[in-house]
């Protein structure tokens, strides 16, 4: 680590922040607070700051480790096991979709690509009409988005997009398609392109360097490496939580928690998993209904260097195809680009041996487009289902024909866009397909190519749903303020609250809605005391 | 039992999108764990053909590095994925397992590169998803581990920024 980069976490710990690494505990321990928050990602971090500011005692319990800029060495081989769920190797049960989700303090905000988009109007309107969500309109949420945008320095990226993003912009301009300059949660960004491995210069305004330090400054306690394994409940009350240190040793400590109020912010897989394991009421079988924005990839080669590893990973997106047929209509897809780093690209392309080696030789000339499919809005895209297993959980997410039809359209869109932007060759990331030399050839190939499970690379970095909000108990697990329908002292504040996918990158939606709901909760709790 | 478990779908080929976690740390081991060493010394040249250097000494060094990285990749995988992968590797090292997976008991080390390519292509395009996942699991494990090593980035002309070293 360069000497001139101050690590705010090591500095804060030295100054006396209350942090306990559960792996260092030599005996079981009990903790009490006004509020215990499980998880420290976009939801948990936001809630922690607001509740601590309201004068409530707060404990944040995180299953992953506390890692900070001193640990972020800009290498995938370090970042994936340290900062991602299952070392970034998580997949749906049929191995059809690879899932990237954060697991260290700060959750996915520590490793996301900083794209900050308000909840789309279409999503909010759909939730109100079809999912019984109330009080969450574009207008009512505006002050909460403004608050969090100010808090996290979210603003439009002022620099030139890198050439990977510029290709998306240029393609859209040529074809007359909509595109938008992305707003990013950064302050003093060095434009290096390593957001996905943890920001080494603390420019990304993740929970790790903003709300969590703020909560700690106000006396909150952070417990890392403690995975919540049980939630005790009786009647309409949660009575306590148990967590296990993650050292893996037989002497790993058990931690127990009592609080006036409990908040689950463990993410859209682990929040429902905790509730399922605790056998909490779920009379309408709604827990664990999950949405992923299943994402297709299209590579292309330019006759100039793209250097997709360098510069802000995402600075342009296109919503040209997301809502074309209305929210409940044909599945749509959002167009973005990913950062291009060796493991990510080598593993998410196809083939092996000489053909793969040849592709990797052109690494710096490679431009990659992604299409994120909006799921959960109709019977065509019911999403997935988290279920418990002996060792943990599995996520079943069958990819059915409507998805593959959409994928085929998305591949064609991406190829057309890439050729319009000046690509010399396009490679749909679908097994058995070679380089396409022009749009006409690509169009014909994509129309007839063998597409499907395991043949087509599908990825996800947006896990949503699993504990949906709404006022109708037959459709939801929590109300529109995040309060459990079944326990008066339990709230859910993370991506699991969404009744469908968003059609947009989720972090700002979580920040804004949780800021609102945590503020309302703080008012209720402080009024009681 | 292994065959039964495998065929009933417990094995799903790992997703091993990974990393050779701590190759830069003092944990670097120049005498890598010999677990599945022979198997990988046969498979890596097939998966990484065209990427591995031709010069014998360099080639051996790259091969060794990749085997270390693979073992470290496996070590950080969740337990169930580790078990699935170990099951596959063990089958590829046993005559009975080879018979099930490849219809031949000839050890992989005695097969020609053409035969090994043919085996992988057979799995890759197999009608059983189970066989496809075997291919994908090995592919992602080996290719990800290979490109986890900065020593192997020369052909990519990729390097991380150096300001952290300042």
From TrEMBL, chain A:
Belongs to the GMC oxidoreductase family. It comes from Shewanella electrodiphila. InterPro entries: FAD-dep_OxRdtase_2_FAD-bd (IPR003953), FAD/NAD-bd_sf (IPR036188), GMC_OxRdtase_N (IPR000172), GMC_OxRtase_C (IPR007867). Keywords: FAD, Flavoprotein, Oxidoreductase. Residues 34-69 form the FAD-dependent oxidoreductase 2 FAD-binding domain. The keyword Ion transport does not apply. It holds the Pfam family GMC_oxred_N. This is GMC family oxidoreductase.
From TrEMBL, chain B:
It comes from the Bacteria. This is TAT leader-containing periplasmic protein. It comes from Shewanella electrodiphila.
């Amino acid at each position: 680590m360069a000497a001139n980069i101050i690590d705010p976490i090591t500095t804060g710990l030295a100054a006396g922040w209350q942090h306990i690494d559960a792996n260092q505990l030599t005996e079981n321990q009990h903790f009490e607070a006004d509020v215990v928050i499980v998880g420290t990602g976009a939801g948990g971090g936001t809630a922690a700051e607001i509740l601590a500011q309201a004068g409530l005692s707060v404990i944040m319990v995180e299953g992953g480790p506390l890692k900070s800029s001193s640990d972020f060495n800009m290498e995938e081989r370090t970042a994936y096991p340290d900062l991602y769920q299952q070392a970034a190797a998580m997949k749906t049960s049929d191995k059809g979709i690879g899932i990237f989700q954060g697991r260290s303090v700060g959750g996915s905000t520590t490793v996301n690509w900083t794209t900050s988009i308000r909840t789309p109007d279409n999503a909010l309107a759909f939730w109100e009409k079809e999912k019984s969500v109330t009080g969450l309109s574009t207008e009512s949420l505006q002050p909460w988005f403004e608050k969090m945008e100010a808090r996290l320095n979210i603003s439009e990226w002022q620099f030139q997009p890198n050439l990977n993003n510029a290709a998306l912009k240029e393609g859209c301009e040529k074809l007359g398609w909509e595109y938008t300059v992305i707003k990013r949660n950064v302050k003093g960004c060095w434009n290096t392109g390593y957001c996905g491995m943890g920001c080494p210069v603390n420019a990304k305004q993740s929970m790790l360097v903003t709300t969590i330090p703020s909560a700690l400054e106000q006396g909150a306690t952070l417990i890392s490496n403690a995975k919540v394994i049980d939630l005790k409940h009786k009647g309409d009350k949660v009575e306590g939580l148990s967590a296990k240190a993650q050292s893996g040793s037989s002497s790993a400590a058990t931690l127990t928690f009592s609080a006036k109020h409990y908040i689950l912010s463990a993410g859209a897989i682990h929040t429902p998993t905790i509730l399922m394991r605790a056998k909490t009421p779920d009379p309408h079988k709604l827990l664990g209904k999950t949405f992923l924005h299943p994402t297709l990839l299209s590579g292309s080669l330019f006759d100039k260097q793209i250097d997709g590893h360098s510069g802000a990973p995402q600075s342009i997106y296109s919503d040209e195809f997301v809502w074309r047929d209305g929210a409940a209509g044909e599945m749509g897809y959002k167009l973005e680009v990913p950062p291009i780093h060796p493991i990510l690209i080598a593993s998410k392309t196809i083939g092996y041996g000489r053909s793969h080696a040849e592709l990797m030789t052109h690494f710096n000339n490679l431009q990659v487009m992604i299409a994120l499919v909006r799921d959960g809005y109709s019977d065509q895209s019911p999403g997935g289902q988290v279920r418990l297993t002996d060792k943990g959980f599995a996520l079943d997410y069958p990819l059915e024909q409507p998805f593959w039809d959409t994928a085929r359209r998305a591949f064609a869109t991406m190829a057309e866009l890439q050729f319009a932007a000046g690509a010399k060759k396009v490679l749909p990331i679908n097994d058995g397909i070679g380089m396409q030399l022009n749009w006409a050839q690509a169009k014909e190939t994509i129309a007839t190519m063998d597409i499907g499970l395991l043949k087509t690379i599908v990825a996800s970095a947006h896990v949503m749903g699993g504990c949906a909000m709404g006022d109708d108990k037959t459709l939801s697990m929590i109300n529109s303020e995040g309060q459990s329908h079944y326990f008066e002292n339990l709230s859910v504040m993370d991506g699991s609250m969404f009744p469908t996918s968003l059609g947009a990158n989720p972090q700002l939606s979580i920040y804004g809605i949780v800021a609102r709901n945590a503020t309302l909760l703080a008012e209720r709790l402080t009024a009681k005391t | 039992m292994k065959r039964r478990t495998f065929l009933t779908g417990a094995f799903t080929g790992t997703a091993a999108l990974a990393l050779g976690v701590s190759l830069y740390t003092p944990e670097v081991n120049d005498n890598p764990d010999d677990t599945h060493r022979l198997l990988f010394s046969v498979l890596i040249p097939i998966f990484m053909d065209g990427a591995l250097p031709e010069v014998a000494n360099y080639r051996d060094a790259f091969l060794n590095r990749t085997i270390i990285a693979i073992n470290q990749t496996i070590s950080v995988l969740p337990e169930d994925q580790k078990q699935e992968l170990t099951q596959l590797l063990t089958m590829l090292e046993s005559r009975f397992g080879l018979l099930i997976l490849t219809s031949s008991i000839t050890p992989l080390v005695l097969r020609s590169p053409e035969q090994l390519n043919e085996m992988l292509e057979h799995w890759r395009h197999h009608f059983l998803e189970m066989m496809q996942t075997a291919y994908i699991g090995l592919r992602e494990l080996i290719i990800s581990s290979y490109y986890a090593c900065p020593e192997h980035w020369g052909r990519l002309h990729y390097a991380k920024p150096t300001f952290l070293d300042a």
